[in-house]
Design brief:
- The chain is an alpha/beta fold.
- It has one domain (24-128): Glutaredoxin, CATH 3.40.30.10.
- 47% of the residues lie in helices and 22% in strands.
- It contains 5 helices and 5 strands.
- It has helices at 2-24, 33-41, 56-69, 88-94, 120-128, and strands at residues 28-30, 45-51, 78-83, 101-106, 109-115.
- Strands 1-3-2-4-5 form a 5-stranded mixed sheet, sandwiched between helices.
- Helix 3 (56-69) crosses helix 5 (120-128).
- The longest helix has 23 residues, at 2-24.
- It starts with a helix and ends with a helix.
């Protein structure tokens, strides 16, 4: 009986502790010119993630980029995803030549760019440069 009560209590505490994290998450959205320009004009931190569904490096980056999107320091940031295979016009405008490219802007100013990094600390540092 005591074991059941303890497990119920732990489950309740775990559920409550996860609720604030979910509410702080910054939503990633597909790249559109209008949304990107609006975020830049507002002077927001803007993060562009160029991915391809077939790319193992992109898959390795994803959990680290998602973790940064949930970081409270990034609450004002806008995260945009660019599909490497279908959004070639965006790639040209952003001067991106490879999938697994991350680009950090603060407003209209590009602050950092990297391709193929999968180390969580490097990804975090790159994305924080947008602040």
């Amino acid at each position: 009986m005591n074991r059941r009560l303890m497990l119920t209590g732990f489950t309740a505490v775990a559920a409550l502790s996860m609720a604030p994290v979910a509410s702080r998450a910054t939503e990633k959205q597909p790249f559109t010119d209008a949304a990107f320009k609006a975020a830049q004009a507002a002077g927001r931190p803007v993060l562009v993630d160029v991915f391809a569904s077939w790319c193992p490096t992109c898959r390795a980056q994803k959990p680290h980029v998602d973790a940064m999107a949930a970081d409270p320091r990034m609450k004002e940031a806008r995260f945009f995803t660019v599909d490497f295979d279908t959004q070639k016009d965006v790639l040209r405008r952003l001067n991106v030549r490879s999938q697994s490219t991350l680009v950090a802007f603060n407003g209209r100013e590009e602050r950092a760019r990297a391709t193929g990094i999968t180390d969580p600390a490097q990804i975090r540092d790159l994305l924080l440069r947008a602040l």
